[in-house]
Amino acid sequence: MRGLRIIDAAPGETGALMLQEALHQRLFGDGPAVSAVPEPSRHVTATYAAAAHAAVAADPGGVPGDVAVVVATSGSTGRPRGVLLTESNVKSAAQRADLARPGLATCAWILALPVTSVAGLNVVARSLLADSPLAVLPSVGGSTTFDPADLLALEVTEPFAVSLVPSQLRLVVENVDATRLLSAAHTVLVGGAATDQTLLDRARAAGIPAVSTYGMTETTGGCVFDGIPLPDVRVSTDDTGRISVNGPTIAAGYLRPGPDDGFAADGGFTTGDVGRWDGQRLVVFGRADDIVTVHGVNVSLGAIEHLLLRGEDVREAAVVAVSDPASGSRLIAYVVLNGDTSTSPVDLADAAREQLGGAARPEVVRVDELPHLPNGKIDRLALRNAGA
To answer: Range of 18's domain?
Structure first.
């Protein structure tokens, strides 16, 4: 067994440097395993911070000796869980990303995501493994809101790479100077949530080398790039479309394992997502529980969301379902619209009905901003609770 060092990661550069130092001791020395948990801040509630800390707190005996990092899942669909990532997991994820994007292993990195998430952890780890510079945005950790203009104030060494969530990429492409900066990047990884194809096309047309990634904490982050599994990563779907992943990036399990938690004896992991193969590429539809029944009709929340995001006036959108005794599920779409738009919530609801059927017509609620978890994912649990 190995000891575990829990870092209360302060927002911004301070927390990033704390993790960097501790992770260096673990990957290049005999230091303890590491876990970074968020401090409460403007965008991190005390409740979430406490839940993340509880998820990674190990027994006095520590964690298995090959574990390098314990990462709390986002908790987007429930309470966070501690995931055991080994030294081999972390290094394998970096090595295979470089095989898919040759030259990535020598890049400097911009850190735009919290170090308490697997995506932010990977950025810090890959900077360490390459012995390359790490530039940290002030919004990391939630003390401020992500502002693409902050990218311009960083000292960035080329070649460089950055990892973003879709909402960040959307803001970047609306900023001419930030777009120009990221068009010089070696790679811009985009993950953490489904990325609308229209947004990817827009970014790529502007010269941004955007790569859509699929993965999760249990797979050491993105293990599928633009629909193609990384080398040695094996992805399969069953008769229901449920996605399973196997290979060297699969975590050692949960800190507190439970029955049917998705980890298999052969080292594979069955996700909560569904998809299909389009030739050699994996197309991810969304979570299996995102298919809900409305008046006896199966409706995909992801399909509604993608439709809404194709609208030029829609900046962000999230669709949730709450239980309804009459229809089975009541659909609520929370949207952030451009300030000068003439598009109304009714227009958007009607468009969903016309293109996806009457059962898919949501109640559309316009909001100033969507709630986000520290890792940048939309806090769907908060939205469901608000609509209940």
So the answer is: 4-284
